[in-house]
Each structure stands twice: as C-alpha cells, then as structure tokens.
Specification:
30% of the residues lie in helices and 14% in strands. By secondary structure, it is α+β, with helices and mostly antiparallel strands. Strand 7 and strand 8 (215-216) form a beta hairpin.
C-alpha cells in the first residue's frame, strides 16, 4: 500500500516474497495502454484515431468486409470494436503462427463500432501495432521507456507452444516472464508477470500524472484520457483499458486482472 509516494504497508505470505512475480492477467491490458500512450508521445503513432490497418500493410481484407477498415486504435482501447465471435476463440488465436493477424481476422462482422465488447484475444492487435509502429519488440520498447525508468526488472520472453503449456503458465504460482507468440510479439491482454511492487510503481506513475522522480515518462494528457469514461460495460465506466470505479465522475480507477490481481 502506497500513500503520498511512500510505502505505508507491505506484507508477504503463502510462499511469496518481496521480489516474487505472479501472472497479473488482464492488468497487462492497462500496461499495454500506457505503452500505446508512450508510442504516441514519441511520435511512432499519430493519435488514437489512426486506423489499425495503417499498421498492417499487406493484410488482405476478406471479401465484403468493410467495418475493419474503419476501426481505430481508440476502438480497441475502449473495447468498442466489433468482433465476429460470441465466445473468445482462445485456441484458434493461440495455436496460430501470428496472434496479431489471427486477432485481426476476428474483427468486424455484423457488429457496430461503438458497442462495448470486452475481449482478451482481440486486444492482441495492439501488440502488433506497437511492434510494427516502433520496429522494436514490445519487451525492448517497454524496457527502454517504462520498465527501466521505473526500476522494474524486464520480464524474460516466455513461449507457449500448446494448450498444456498455456494452462501451466496460468496455474504456476511462481510464474515469471511475458508470453510471446511465434513471431516474438508479446501478449497484450494477459501473459505478463510482475511483482506487487512493480504493480505499485505503475499505479504511482499514474497518480503522478506520468512523472517518476520528477521526470516525464508518460504525458499527463494521456493519463487523464486513460482514466476517464469513454465507454461502458453495463453500468461500469471504462477508459483506455482501465476501469473507472464508483461511477462516471469518480477519480477512482483500477487495472483489474483475473484472480484478484489489481492496481487500484
């Protein structure tokens, strides 16, 4: 627990320790959101209104598929992009050779842009955008612009080759690293392991409006936009891959991952 930039409580139990890492699940989404913001700040991406297909030259659009041409980065960040599935096809995406392309293939269909649809596999497109826009691996870009400035140890890349390894990663209580696809592109919706102190640093960076030790890591404008309402999941407001807690005008927000992994 941190208050006013100071740690006021920390405790470890059940076999964990201060430097131990665990899979933070969908908290990964909020960290990828920050990386998109940094990429925009540095000019690799123009803005959130840029079309996603700008970053996938040579991608062949299926006959009759027009919606995907209109989808923007903002639509992915706010979970308002349409998809062709009712239930997320994890196996189809994670058994493919290129997870970003497999996720692209799921976009569009009969849904409308602007309708909230929470997805984990679909967000993989953002990792493809980051890799193509920066011409660097996600790990390299994150290390230079987020992890090293916050004194977070860079997670090693982890390869998942089959369903057994996927479930083993999810079940491992002492897991470490960041999952990559066969192309070497890191996951965007899950798959990152951090320590609780690492998570606290990400939260503190947001509270400091993008500054760390007085130095700007991320623009205050991006932080402000990330944690205000852009869409809604039922009655719960949603920002740029951040949940807004306690209503539209609340200043409370959180990165929420499965299994109780939360930056609040």
């Amino acid at each position: 627990v941190k208050k006013n930039d100071e740690t006021v409580f920390e405790g470890y139990f059940d076999g964990y320790h201060r430097d131990g890492t665990l899979h933070v699940a969908s908290v990964t989404k909020s960290i990828v959101s920050a990386l998109i913001g940094i990429a925009i700040d540095k000019g690799f991406i123009k803005n959130t209104e840029q079309h996603i297909l700008d970053f996938f030259h040579g991608y062949k659009i299926k006959r009759g598929e027009k919606t995907i041409q209109k989808i923007t980065i903002r639509d992915l960040l706010t979970m308002t992009a349409p998809y062709k599935f009712n239930h997320e096809p994890y196996t189809k995406v994670y058994s493919s050779d290129d997870w970003s392309k497999a996720a692209l293939d799921l976009l569009g269909g009969k849904g409308k842009i602007g309708e909230f649809k929470y997805t984990t596999v679909g967000i993989q497109v953002l990792s493809g955008i980051l890799a193509n826009a920066t011409a660097k691996s996600i790990t390299e870009f994150a290390t230079e612009n987020l992890f090293t400035p916050l004194d977070i140890n860079t997670p090693k890349n982890v390869t998942i080759r089959n369903k057994d390894e996927y479930f083993a990663f999810l079940r491992d209580r002492q897991v470490s690293g960041w999952v990559i696809d066969p192309k070497g592109v890191n996951t965007a919706g899950w798959g990152l392991a951090l320590s609780t102190n690492d998570m606290a640093k990400i939260g503190q960076l947001c509270l400091n409006m993008g500054k760390w030790n007085g130095k700007p890591i991320l623009s205050s404008k991006w932080i402000g936009n990330s944690v205000k309402e852009h869409s809604k999941c039922g009655e719960r407001p949603y920002g740029y891959l951040w949940w807004i807690i306690n209503g539209k005008n609340s200043k409370d927000y959180a990165a929420i991952g499965d299994g109780g992994n939360v930056i609040f």
